[in-house]
Amino acid sequence: MTDKGHLVSPESVIDDGKAPDALRTIGEVARLLGVKPHVLRYWEEQFPMLRPLTRAGNRRYYRAEDVALVATIDRLLNHEGYTIRGARQALDGDLRVNAPVALDKADQGPVSAPLAADRETAPMGKASPALETELVAAVARLRVHLEQIRSGLAAALEDD
């Protein structure tokens, strides 16, 4: 997913020559995202959903989804101005994560053909990663639009 969505996609963050599903050390993730390893360890304490694999000697190994989550946390804290508590709530789904964005024609159209095919062939409860990403993005866009509607209604009521 892009910055318009809730979570950053692993593909948009990980470009280090390793296989997309390869495990990465804390140092590799720190270099990828431009943060210090101690910051990543602190975020692990503050964000219960961030749990990289640990091996002997408490050595951390980050999966692609962990890297995407760290990138999202970094975006919320360091680029969008969230507090740790606010970012934690946003990741839990209690707050909208994005600033309002204009609707484009792609947002108003039907689900793309490959995703529609996934919907018909995927067993119940087992969405493909592409479909899941699309659905999360759609929910994020709907939250933005709902917030815009609420703001418009609140402004209209204040004018009365």
Keywords:
56% helix, 160 residues, 8 helices, 3 strands, Multidrug-efflux Transporter Regulator, Chain: A, Domain 2, mainly alpha, elongated
Structural class: mainly alpha
Helix % is: 55-70%
Q: Radius of gyration from the CA trace?
A: 18 Å
Kindly report the CATH topology of the largest domain: Multidrug-efflux Transporter Regulator, Chain: A, Domain 2
Largest sheet: 3 strands, antiparallel
Write down the CATH class of the largest domain. Answer: Mainly Alpha
Strand count: 3
Shape descriptor: elongated
Instruction: Determine the N-to-C terminus distance.
Output: 40 Å
Count of runs of 4 or more consecutive helical residues: 8
Q: Can you list the strand order of the major beta sheet? A: 1-3-2
Spans where pLDDT lies below 50 across 5 or more residues: 1-6, 94-123
Beta content: 5-15%
Q: Give the tally of structural domains.
A: 2
Mean pLDDT, all residues: 74
Pattern of helices and strands: HEHHEEHHHHH
CATH architecture of the largest domain: Orthogonal Bundle
List the helices and strands and how they pair.
Elements: H1 10-13, E1 24-25, H2 26-33, H3 37-46, E2 53-55, E3 59-62, H4 64-79, H5 84-91, H6 105-108, H7 113-121, H8 129-159
What is this entry, summarized?
The protein has 160 residues and is mainly alpha-helical.
Q: What does this protein look like?
A:
The chain is mainly alpha-helical. The protein folds into two domains: 1-97, Multidrug-efflux Transporter Regulator, Chain: A, Domain 2 (Orthogonal Bundle), CATH 1.10.1660; 100-160. The protein is elongated, with a radius of gyration of 18 Å. The protein has a three-stranded antiparallel sheet. The chain has helices at residues 10-13, 26-33, 37-46, 64-79, 84-91, 105-108, 113-121, 129-159; strands spanning 24-25, 53-55, 59-62.
